[in-house]
Amino acid sequence: MSEGTLTQNALPDGEDGPPDLERRLHLRAFDYWRSLCGDRLLPAFSDLSPAGLAPFKAASLLLERQVDGTVLIRFIGSDIARIAGPDLVAGDVLGAGDVTGFSRALLAELQTMRGDIKAAEFEYVEVDLASRGVLLPLSAPGGAPTFTLIVAGKMPLDGDDLMDIPEEDAAASGHDAEDAIAPAEVRQTDDGDSENLHALMDTARAAAGTLAHPGLDAREQLYDTLAAALALHEMGEVDAAAYRTLLRDANLKRQARAPFTPALKLVFGKEYDKTRLTEYAAAIAYARRFDVASDGLAAFLREQPGGIKGCVKAEREAKRGESGSPAARRQAAARRHLRQMPARKLKNMDISGEFGLVLVRRKAGGGTEAVAAAEVADGTVDAVIRRIAGRQNDKTS
Description:
This protein is of the alpha+beta class. It has helices spanning 20-37, 50-53, 78-84, 101-112, 167-172, 193-208, 218-238, 240-249, 261-268, 274-288, 294-303, 307-321, 326-340, 378-396; strands at residues 60-65, 71-76, 120-125, 130-138, 147-154, 357-362, 368-374. This is PAS domain-containing protein.
């Protein structure tokens, strides 16, 4: 959005959270919107649920585009009402009456994205207020993008933005109130590596907050965000004490079996989808098998077949094959058990269908012997039948 003209009063002390929270809020809203899409290009308004909206309801604005082109305000949360000013009232038409710069800019943004079915991030800056949000289109019956869910929060301005945050809030967010650090800046202070850790975390969270930005490749942004998270982990290995403090302030702990998960939670938030966090951690773990550092992670993920999903699959296969892993121990125990099982005669084995699979064992003196009928799904048997038949056809052709 373009620069505004309205001067807005600053929010009362204590009502702003740390500046990174609004970025994570938008990411959660975008993830919720995307989860509702399914196989469709955009979700339906009727897909929204109170439980799904609860984490960002106070920061939400729901608009409905009418047939005549006007935009009706269906709902406005308490937090966004303080940002937008008194001209946004549920039930009113957006832009009617005394219009503030925020409303004008919002109307212009909606006109720009008319008919758009993609999520879009926006920013609005005026004299003493900066707001960033994400616009999430929703369809009415018929498929047209009639509704727009907006989740917005106050974001930091350049320079003195952190001065408005009370000292206890600033400390909780990992910043000193008098030291506003630009997200991409890493600088040395008396605390040295501790300062770098905070700056790296800001950089990673800033990257995570732009994943829904229009016009950019979301996959590339995700790779860059994971690289930033790995850089945070690497810095934590350099200064373990500062990293422990950072984790403790966020109510997180280091995990021996999942070393990259704490850094990912610092970046994406503790409430981020656990399945995706696990996949991201597995992808990073696979890259580290090849001694890939943070500065090469994005390129590594880009070059891997299947990207993150491919890395996750490869990492799981690698872990299963590791000696000493739970999967490897279970497999070894199963093999020992089958070595002790007595051989069986084929005529004494029962199978449910016309064809079945039998597990055989190599004998010490040569040859094989049957151990047991394999109880597997019909699809597995059918696949083996096709494979054997195909090989026979290849031999005869």
